[in-house]
Amino acid sequence: MAVLSKHSSPDATLESGGAARPEINWPTQNDWRLMLLLPLLTALAWIVPPRLWARLGGKPNLRTTEEFARDHLEYTENTQQNRGRIYFDKPEIMTYLREYFPLGWQPSITIEGTEKLEAAREAGAGAVLWVADFSRSHLVAKKALCAAGYKMFHLSRPVHGPAQSPFGMKWINWIFQRVETKYLKARVQISDGNEVGGLRTLRKALKAGEFISVTSGRESRNVVWLPFRAGRYPFAPGAPLLAAGAGAPLFAVFVLSRPEDQQSFHVVVEGPIEAPSGLSRDEAVRSIMEQFLALHEGYLPRYEPVWDGRRSFRFGAPAE
What we know:
By secondary structure, the protein is α/β, with parallel strands linked by helices. It has a single domain (3-23, 107-311), classed as 3-Layer(aba) Sandwich (Glycerol-3-phosphate (1)-acyltransferase). It is built from 10 helices and 11 strands. It has a 9-stranded mixed beta sheet, with helices on both faces. It has a two-stranded antiparallel ribbon with strand order 8-9. A hairpin with an 8-residue loop joins β1 (3-4) and β2. α1 (29-47) crosses α3 (90-98). The model is unreliable at 1-20 and 75-87 (pLDDT under 50).
């Protein structure tokens, strides 16, 4: 049975039953850095026009996925001090803080493919929306789908946010999660070892014809590495597992933008993605993940600089 989280509105965030919250430790160096930056970034987010925010983050990173992966792997793994700093994307943090402004953050957002979602809604079987890891996708996808009439149950983890420590997950990340929650029907939060209650809530929602959203990533105890370009790319299999278990269609959602313009977005709904018949559950899940990754290749030639998934790409990572 799911219980309500005390960090958001009582009808918005669900946490898997019996889940122990992360142990509260002292703030890390990065937590202190964030807490000191937040008041300044909040003031900037409210005062500075959003079109000027990109200047605070420097020039767009135009390196290829392979070049980015080499640099990022060296940066994050060679020194413990650098771990977590990659999450300090100041303009992205400001988009969340701007949402607390009376007028909110109002980027230009267009969406295509909602007729596919409407067909799924009319069928009454519910659907899983797997959101690709592109720049600003966490917030923009929720804003776009909510505006189109689709308020969803969203699968989330405490690690979602700019802080990665136990302290930061409890006292900092909720500031950002709360912003997204207002565009959702409910946030269902799970953590490793305490997934059962939250997943049960999501399965019941699917059977009731609700829509579930999951952002692609590698936050899972059971990561699947797929061959991709000169290396491999990891996926948490939660989205295809939910869809397969409930017999619900799975759609891919891409949030596209130009590197130099993070105030205009085009959201594309692809799918449904279906596995060939006659496969075992594991084979069907892998087939769906392979198709999802193949869809990325259609967008990366133009939008590679805003693919945040580059942080997870690895050269020659062994299959798991």
